[in-house]
Design brief:
Elements lengths: L7 E4 L5 E4 L5 E3 L5 E2 L35 E3 L2
Antiparallel strand pairs: 1-2, 3-4, 3-5
Bound molecules: zinc ion.
Length: about 80
């Protein structure tokens, strides 16, 4: 059983409606790459909307090729 965080709908100041998820971004510690859950990494089999925790362990940084262990959660 996996725990999925739910997205919430929020309205920006410009009146634009968008889905805001509670998923966190993760910073690669070896290069400037930042994993953004809403974008995912489709070229490497990670569809948009995938939280970092749900990425398969074999996934590596698309820029420098380092493993998931070397990412740090952005607050
Ligand atoms: Zn990297």
């Amino acid at each position: 059983m996996s725990l999925k965080k739910q997205g919430i709908i929020s309205t920006t100041q410009g009146g634009e409606c968008r889905i805001v998820t509670e998923m966190d971004k993760w910073q690669c510690l070896a290069c400037p790459y930042i994993y953004e859950p809403e974008r995912g990494d489709p070229t490497n089999g990670v569809p948009p909307g995938t939280s970092f925790e749900d990425i398969p362990d074999y996934w590596v940084c698309p820029v420098c090729g380092i493993s998931k262990d070397h990412f740090e959660r952005l607050m």
